[in-house]
Amino acid sequence: MDLGLKDKVVVVSAASLGLGEAIAMELAQEGANLAICARREGPLEEARAKMAAKGVDVLALQADMTKPKDIEMFISKTMEKYGRIDVLINNAGDAAFGHSIETPDEEWAKIFDINLWSVIRMCRLVVPIMREQGGGIILTNASTSGHTPLPGSIDYSAAKAAVINMTKTMAMELAPDNIRVNAFNPALVRTPLWEKVAEETLVGVYGDTVDEVFETLAKQYLLMPRYGRPDEVSGIVALMASERASFITGACWNIDGGLTRFMV
Questions:
Q1: Is 102 a domain residue?
Q2: Could you tell me if 112 and 196 lie in one domain?
Q3: In terms of pTM, does the model score above 0.85?
Q4: Which residue from 7, 135, 164, 222 puts its CA 20 to 30 A from 147's CA?
Q5: H-run or E-run covering 33
Q6: Adjacent-strand bridge partners of 38
Q7: How far apart are the C-alpha atoms of 143 and 43, rounded to whole Å?
């Protein structure tokens, strides 16, 4: 199915590994031109080369989405190169387990900076661009934790809940500007981020190895007794980024193996 994304300009944050890389690769296969960023230069260059091999333009910039100046640089250089932004995909995020209401302010702030404030700052810069050009699409990686939290990550769940409500509010406010705003909510997808979280905080609790942790969590929480793959998310995101989803705004799509089966 042709999604009509050829030559569209798509911005994807945190796109060197995991879901971000899978999403950007999916969009490159659809013919979209990309602006991607990540904190580490090596993985970023490797990702850029793989995407460019699909025959599309790829602007890859080293940037930390917790730093306002880096965000400003990223969007400014994207506009210098392409002159427009058709789709913004906010993908930067981080998580930690073992946090609670007693977790110090500075740890809460770290989680909020990357999961919420990065989205606010990106949207604050991109919305005026989309208004000026007559429309656009904003998608954010929100997580099922934003509406179906699990114990041990109270700060992460709170940040993602804010992202979901921000998405719905922006959809209402920006519909007159022809800007669609949606979120996608993955759960238990095996990525470098969740392998890190499992290794650091879950091994010894849910299993003796990372593989055992994923197996245990999948069996405990999902209808489909396995963890998800990044490509099972990226295809849905590509659809949401296309005109095939032109009547969808203010939505939060769960991609979660049945975790949220009791939610309507």
A1: yes
A2: no
A3: yes
A4: 135
A5: strand 33-38
A6: 62
A7: 24
Q: How many domains does the chain have?
A: 2
Which residue type does 91 have?
Answer: N
Q: Are residues 199 and 149 in the same domain?
A: no
Q: Read off the CATH number of the domain in which 42 is found.
A: 3.40.50.720
User: What would the pLDDT profile of 239-261 be if each residue is shown by its tens digit?
Assistant: 999 999 999 999 999 999 998 87
Which residues are annotated as catalytic? 156
Same-domain pairing of 135 and 237: yes
Asked, for residue 101, whether it belongs to a domain, the answer is yes
The enclosing H or E element of 139 equals: strand 136-141
Token pair in block for residue 225: 């007794």
71-118 pLDDT, tens digit per residue, is: 999 999 999 999 999 999 999 998 887 899 999 999 999 999 999 999
If asked whether residues 150 and 44 sit together in one domain, one would say yes
Q: Answer whether residue 73 is part of any domain.
A: yes
Kindly state whether residue 253 falls inside one of the protein's structural domains: no
Please check whether residue 92 is in contact with residue 118, taking contact to mean a CB–CB distance below 8 angstroms: yes
96-122 burial, b for 16+ CB within 10 Å, e for fewer? beebeeeeeeeebeebbbbbbbbbebb
Give me the domain span that covers residue 177: 9-189+229-246
Distance CA 88, CA 76 (A): 14
Q: Tell me, yes or no, whether 204 and 150 share the same domain.
A: no
Any idea of the CA torsion for 71, 77, 78, 84, to the nearest 10 degrees? 110
Cα 63 to Cα 3, 11, 72, 226: the distances in Å are 29, 13, 10, 33
Q: 138-183 pLDDT, tens per residue? A: 999 998 988 988 888 999 999 999 999 999 999 999 999 999 999 9
**Alpha helices, DSSP H, located in the chain:** 18-29, 41-52, 68-82, 105-112, 118-133, 154-174, 192-197, 210-221, 230-240
